[in-house]
Design a protein that fits this description.
The chain has about 325 residues and is of the alpha/beta class. Helices cover about 30% and strands about 25% of the residues. The protein has two domains: about 1-175, 3-Layer(aba) Sandwich (Peroxisomal Thiolase, Chain A, domain 1); about 180-325, Thiolase/Chalcone synthase (Peroxisomal Thiolase, Chain A, domain 1), CATH 3.40.47. The radius of gyration is 18 Å and the shape is globular. It binds oxa(dethia)-CoA (UT7).
């Protein structure tokens, strides 16, 4: 027998306020047509007063815990991926832990921007498999609206706020069982040579301010397609599976054209790709768990399905995980 991390619940949360492309076009020099054609985005949610990364993360966590049908007290590990924490410190994960009332275990944040959820998932999976914890909450939560330059049309139309969460339970599993549930394989990468293509121009140790997001979109796009196709292939090879074995791919939701180009490069049927970028825009670390929860709740992703999660973002960082749900 080996230990595997099994997904037993998913959840998500969005701010109250939806903002359409038309509403943005009234504020900056852009059009609904440009945004839809270049990105596939039609709508995003923007956090209002009282809505923060921690409040969204807590709501998503509560939904995931309810779906899992467990008591919050069972959670002994929280790994929260965010680039927009409520405070520079303490970690937002500790605030979520306190709000849920499961104090005493382990709780920390990871920073890998848009790939943050994949990084958080791999760290939690490793801790569960080595026995450091038994039941983990893995969260991606962001309020990117608070680090956007609302006068820069090349970035402000692309992002939104939200949170997604999953509950992972360590279970004994037969290594020879092809239908065994759980995380089957994961790969993470980083290449710091590309820091300057997607970054925030401030921070506690440099400017003493939070800073604003800056991106050279066209260059990020080019790297994203190559890196995502490549890491997905690595994870499939590690699991001894083919693209055609996948039931679903849940990608980071940055741009519909990236999703199409990656699927084409891999020979993946487009109907197997979960797309939510049209309604949520790019929610950074929240985008993968948010899309996963949408597809679980609308009945597309079912227990036993083979699902690939993948993301790429600032750093650059990128990664993928293969899960039997
Ligand atoms: O989540 C982390 C990963 N991030 C990503 O994966 C983002 C990757 N990049 C992208 O999604 C795309 O590159 C963008 C959506 C950011 C941009 O699309 P693009 O097709 O690469 O456009 P572009 O940057 O080459 O800009 C084309 C034109 C420019 O005008 P000129 O120079 O051709 O006259 C821009 O100034 O579109 C203009 N433009 C806009 N026009 C209307 C840029 N933003 C806007 C806008 N509205 N909001």
């Amino acid at each position: 027998m080996i230990r595997r991390s099994v997904v037993i619940g998913t959840g998500s949360a969005l701010p109250r306020r939806a903002v359409s492309n038309a509403e943005l076009a009234a504020q900056v020099d852009t059009t609904d047509e440009w945004i839809v054609e270049r990105t596939g985005i039609r709508n995003r949610y923007i956090a209002g007063e009282g809505e923060t990364t921690v409040s969204l993360a807590t709501a998503a966590a509560r939904a995931a815990i309810a779906a899992a049908g467990i008591e919050a007290a069972r959670i002994d590990l929280i790994v929260l991926a965010t680039a927009t924490p409520d405070q520079t410190f303490p970690a937002s994960a500790t605030q979520v832990q306190h709000a849920l009332g499961c104090n005493g275990g382990t709780a920390f944040d990871v920073a890998a921007v848009c790939s943050g959820f994949l990084y958080a998932l791999s760290v939690a999976d490793a801790m569960l498999r080595t026995g450091m914890a038994s039941c983990a909450l893995v969260i991606g939560a962001e309020t990117f609206s608070r680090i956007l330059d609302w006068e820069d049309r090349t970035t402000c139309v692309l992002f939104g706020d939200g949170a997604g969460a999953i509950v992972l339970e360590a279970r004994d599993s037969d290594p020879g069982d092809p239908a065994a549930r759980g995380i089957l394989a994961s790969r993470l990468h980083a290449d710091g040579a590309h820091n300057g293509l997607l970054y925030v121009d401030g921070g506690p140790s440099t400017t003493g301010t939070v800073g604003k997001l800056r991106m050279k979109g066209r260059e990020v796009f080019r790297h994203a397609v190559v890196n995502l196709a490549s890491v997905l292939g690595e994870v499939l090879a590690e699991a001894g599976l083919q693209v055609s074995d996948l039931d679903w791919v849940v990608p980071h939701q940055a741009n519909a054209r990236i999703l199409d180009a990656t699927a084409r490069k891999l020979g993946l049927a487009p109907e197997k790709v979960v797309v939510t970028v049209d309604r949520h825009a790019n929610t950074s670390a929240a985008s993968v768990p948010l899309a996963l929860d949408v597809a679980v709740r609308d009945g597309r992703i079912k227990p036993g399905d083979l699902v690939m999660l993948e993301a790429m973002g600032g750093g650059f960082t990128w990664g993928a995980s293969l899960i039997r749900m």
